[in-house]
Design brief:
CATH architecture of the domain at 516-651: 3-Layer(aba) Sandwich
Organism: Crocodylus porosus
Subcellular location: Cytoplasm
Keywords: Cytoplasm
Domain Methyltransferase: 539-661
Strand order of the largest sheet: 9-8-5-10-11-14-13-12-15-16-18-17
Largest sheet: 12 strands, mixed
Region (Disordered): 66-86
Distance between the termini: 77 Å
CATH superfamily of the domain at 516-651: Vaccinia Virus protein VP39
Radius of gyration: 30 Å
Number of strands: 18
CATH topology of the domain at 516-651: Rossmann fold
Amino acid sequence: MPVPPWLVRGCTALLRSGTRAACDTCLGLPEAGAAGTASAFWEVGRGKGPKPALHMCYLQPRSLTPGRAGRPVRPAHGPPGAARRARGFRPAARAAGKGGASVTSSPRGGRSCATGTLNWKMKGSVTEERLYLDFSHQYEDCIFPLHSSVALFLLSYCDCRLFKVFLVPAGESADDQLEGKALPSDPKLHFTSRCQLPLVVQNCCLPAIVGKDGKFCRAGLAVVLRHIVQKTYEANPSNKEALELLGFKKTCLKACAEVSQWTRLCEISIPLAVESFLTASPERCQTIPPEVLQLEKKLGEPVRVHNDDKIRRQKLQQQNTADNTASLPALAMGSTEEGIIEEKQEQTLTSLELRVAFSKLTVQEVPATTNREPPLIRKTKTSDLPTLEHIFAEGLYFTLADLVLLPCIHQFLLFSKKQNRKLLNLPLILGWYQRVQEVPGVKAAASKSNMQFLQFPDLLSSPEEHLQDFSTFSDGSEEDHEDKQFIGGPRPTMTKLMERGIEATFSPHPTPCWTLDWSKLPAAVNPGEGKMSSERALRKQQQLNNLVAMVTNLSKPGDVIVDFCSGGGHVGIVLAHMLPSCQVVLIENKELSLVRAKDRSDELGLNNICFIQANLDYFKGTFNIGVALHACGVATDMVIEHCIKVHAAFVICPCCYGFIQNTAKFTFPRSHQFKEVLSYKEHMILCRFADQTAVQLPPERKIIGKQCMGLVDLDRAWAAEAYNYSVQVISMEPESCSPKNNMVVGIPV
């Protein structure tokens, strides 16, 4: 379908006047010059580009149509009026100004271009969310802290303009800090002070993204970066490369740092280690940070991917082939979109892993293999197959983790080069650093971010240098295997505690018969209106009765109540509805759960509630009461710690005792009394058996499980009492409402 002459006339006229045409946005093209945009139009006319309907509009500049800048309009010379009306469009008033264009209305509602197919795109291009980044200083054209540089680099890589980006200086003003400095050219940056931040953002660590209504905030590097990628894909679903950054099953950096080693390394360890390295004394700079060595070690570990067995068998076949120039296996084949990538592959790709990785970057659909492997390859045991080597950070494929690490490692290498440090003992990091540069779009993003990549001849020193030996290196992530493996039941441990006068004790429930009248509550408040079965909904109502009763007794008008690990918002929404004079904050790391909670809140029209998608560590606000229903494992201890920091009361129902283990911030046992009696191994025994309270277990097993639950929570209660708290461990009523029916209630004295 050729491009209509009236459209070409209208757009080329704009191009000659130096106006940026909207077809750049519609087609997802880079901001080329006038010639590049005109070329895109003619390519579409020959049937070589996207559908012609996707760019039948342009954005009139502010100088031409005051009051209508940024709105979708069509050229003044349009198709005949009858043809427009036949497609369902109504005439529209002329825009202000001589020669102005008129705004059309789509049959599906909203403003649109001439064919009504641009509604989704134009909606996505409107700035509805704000991104706030910390700004402490600028060094070598790099914005610090590194979290901010990473976020800006991702925006440049994705060519994302869906956010209004603010830098938040550490001081009162950024004028002195920015004098003579060159900020990144893309995206456009604004400045604001901390006192001008939205209230929900003031309660979070940056980076943070807040929605248009100011009620929904996303905080923390991993959460913010994943949201940028998702919004980029939503605005342009043809941009599959953006979605691929989230990795297989879209889980890259999804787990919190307490659970995922990769999230902890990318989000916390590497950025902080590099920042410390850059500001350390000359003596300390002579040693490579342990976190960087940990990354080098991880890049040397075998790769595991979802089609691991298939690729490893192909690698074995490649190794057994005498001719090293044999063609690629079908899995790693695929025509490239640009000759540049083909040339780069011919020059540098020498392994199957590299070929598979770059095939992923250059082709979306890979034809299925038609030839079976030789019998010798098929019969080889999995344990005898060769391992796969890292091409990128998490394995064979380029993901968000690479984009997080790249600005950090670049600053580390740049500083090391200036110090004339020899870096041959980091061969895997250097190889990764070079490969990432060849990924399409990375160099362009680096140019926008004022990042000049280093080359290996400038980095490598004498080849006689010995490679780093990691045989004795420990990254601290591996627990003592002796403590992990234990034999026997909980009775010896419980007996040991009893001999010291320590037994599980439960305080009486202060309001055992208190209940909400669920039949009179709105449907969006009642958990039974969701997708739960009737039995599960009844148990959830009983659980909520217990928590709401406790919080109601503790709260007073004007209090701030935080629902940690809120999930779908069952607790927080009930509290916001029942206590309209209190402000309720829901904190949850899972986006889908929190979005469902916000939808329910919007249905109820609640004005005293806000939502934060973040890990607990990124919330720094003050509050009066902390509540959590079934906070998993160490999350219970994190909630208690947050409450103690601000001297707030807490009502917590713990869960998943078996997942309790030592972390970088928490060690067990928690209390002084338990530490004097139990080792970490013995405490783990209690935690493992505290999980054995399921309904289908024998009664005697459930009794022991309940006692172990009581002992673990007693340890937590005594630890909190050391901070001048009065703490009780209470059983929910009825106890059948949940196998995990303990409540830990703490009140500051």
